[in-house]
Amino acid sequence: MNKDNELTKKYIKDIKSGDVWSVFRIIADFVKGFDELGQLGPTVTIFGSARTSKNDLYYKETLKLSKMLAQKGFNIMSGGGPGIMEAANKGAKKVKGIESIGLNIDLPFEQIANPYTTKELTFDYFFSRKVMLVKYSMAYVIFPGGFGTLDELFEALTLVQTRKITGVKIFVIGVDFYKPLLEFIDNKLVANGMIDQSDVEFIRLTDDLECVVREIEESLVKQIEVLQDVGLSDTPYYKALSNFSYDKEIIKDRRVKKPKKKK
User: d(Cα 150, Cα 173) in Å, to the nearest integer?
Assistant: First the structure.
């Protein structure tokens, strides 16, 4: 049986399994993610192609950025597969005490788990996996990739644009690679009134890795202030971010109060 027939067989099997069983699998995906990722603390998600080779410039840049962020104390999350995802996890795993998280997807081809994770989860559905990739991260870094990477980029942009998430930074790495896409967005989407010019400002296109690290640290302070302003200073997530910021001496603004430790 060739690959196309195998995929068709799997698709038909999923349909015939019935909606009720699908609901249970969906719930299982979410419960698994909530249980395993809810207490992570400051985390950055890195997206990019599964097909990028180890000799590729962007593989090497991903490895470098991941290690830089991990050395600052940030956990690193990826889709758990090869290519850019592997580089992200590999860089993080080089730093002791840092979680290198891989959120894999059950696919009949291409997606093979990389060996550089400290925490690995496998999901049945893309949409539940995507929720977990963005829900527990304070910044998204988009390296060059294909349809999946672009899907994740525009999903993140939509969430920020519609204010479903706030305070999250979106970094797009690869000026030469992504500049034509940004030009399309300006010349077609903005020019035709389909999005506002301010929406484009959510995207930080750069090749400067040190700038990315610096702005993520600055973003952390803003996120803590937002959580405090909306009355969420008693939540575990706020306390994890705030304690981290004080421990790393990131917070300089005394308006953000350090949470008291329970005796």
Answer: 13
Name the band, by pLDDT with cuts 50, 70 and 90, for residue 3: low
Look at residue 263 in the predicted model and tell me its pLDDT: 46
Nearest by Cα to 259 from 248, 244, 237, 243:
243
**How far from chain centre, in Å, is Cα 167?**
14
Sign, Cα dihedral of 121, 122, 128, 133: positive
3-state SS string for 202-228: CEEEECCHHHHHHHHHHHHHHHHHHHH
Q: Which domains does the chain have, with CATH numbers?
A: 40-208 (3.40.50.450)
Amino acid at 213: V
The whole-number average pLDDT for the span 103-131 is: 86
Question: pTM of the predicted model, to two decimals?
Answer: 0.85
**Mean pLDDT, residues 111-125:** 90
Residue 128: per-residue pLDDT? 92
Tokens of 13: 């099997």
Distance of CA 255 to the CA centre of its chain: 29
Q: What is the largest CA-CA distance in the chain?
A: 65
